[in-house]
Amino acid sequence: MLTAIITGASVGIGQATAQRFLGMGYRVYNLSRRPCPEPGVENIICDLASDESINSACKRLLPVIADSATVCLLHNASQMRKDTADDCSSDSLRAVLETNVVALNSINRQLLPALPKGSSLLYVGSTLSEKAVAGSFSYVLSKHAQLGMMRATCQDLMGKGIHTALICPGFTDTEMLRTHIGNNPEVVAAIGSMNAYGRLIEPEEIAGLIVWAHGNPVINGAVLHANLGQKEA
Prior knowledge:
The chain is α/β, with parallel strands linked by helices. The chain has helices spanning 12-23, 51-66, 90-111, 137-156, 175-181, 185-192, 203-214, and strands at 2-7, 27-32, 42-45, 70-75, 120-124, 163-169, 222-226.
C-alpha cells in the first residue's frame, strides 16, 4: 500500500494535496482539528499544540506505516499571526512555535524510525522561510526554523533511503492568506501583482509540486521555490 500522511489537510494546500494523492491510489490520512472534506480521506482529529493528541495520532499511524510500501509524511499545517518584533509576547511566540516547529519534531520522533525506504519527509515552508516582511514576526521566525529542520533532517537521514525537501510557496490563495490580508479586491490584486504572472498561486499548483517531490529523491535536501517568479523588493 502507498500512504500519505498530511497535517492540516482540511483546507488549502493540504486538501489539494490529499486530493492528488487519492487520485494516485494512496491511502490518505489527515491530522488536524477539522476533517478534510475530500471523500476517502481518513481523518485523525489532532491538536498539534497537544503532546497527548499527537501521541494518540502517531500510535494510530504506526500500524498503517508498517503496512505501507512507501509513505509521504507532509508537514503542512501552520498558524500565522499578525505581530511584530516589538509587539509579540513570548506566550504568543511559544504558541506559534508549538504548532509550526515543536509539533513537527514530535511527529518526526515517533514516525521517522518506522518509515520504509523510498518514503519522503516533506515540509511546506514559505517564501518567508528565506526572507521577511513586516507584521508577520512569529510566522517568519517559525518558517526559518522549518528550513533549518529540513536541512538537519536531511543530514541525519543519510543512508536510510528517505528523502526530504522544503517546498516554499509564494502567495497562495488559501484560507490562511485570506485571513491574514482580508478579501479587499484591491489588496488581493496588489499581493497577486508581486510575481511575474500577476496572480495568486492556486493550492492545486503547490499540490502538484509536493507530489512530484515525493517521487523524486534526487531533490533530497532541496528548497523548492514555488512563487511564480516573485518580484524582488
